[in-house]
Amino acid sequence: MSKKRRTHSPTLKAKAALAAVRGDKTISELSAQFQVHSNQIQSWKKQLLNSATEIFQNGSGGAPDQAATIKELHAKIGQLAMEKDFLSKALGGLE
Asked: What pLDDT does residue 95 have?
């Protein structure tokens, strides 16, 4: 029987990676504390250090571009409204 993979929350990953970056404890101590393999903590630490520059690059704090998302959603709403109108006319106004 195969062992089910564990999924870790982003919060746990961030805490483990930040603790590894701080260096207050060794990787093996962090591994025991978070109950995660030491290679996984090293991987999360590397991801944190590699993506840290992207967070501060444009000053947005890593937040997604909300204006573009809103514009896409409005376009989708308009498209769906047009399809609804077309189908209601094609079906003889059944609603």
From this structure: 54
Q: CB–CB of 44/13 below 8 Å? A: yes
pLDDT at position 79, please?
95
- Cβ pair 50, 42 in contact under 8 A: no
Please list, in sequence order, all residues whose beta carbon lies within 8 angstroms of the beta carbon of residue 30, skipping any fewer than 6 positions away: 16, 19, 20, 38, 41
**Can you give the pTM of this predicted structure?**
0.57
44 contact partners, CB below 8 Å, separation of at least 6: 13, 16, 17, 20
Q: Are 46 and 38 in contact (CB under 8 A)?
A: no
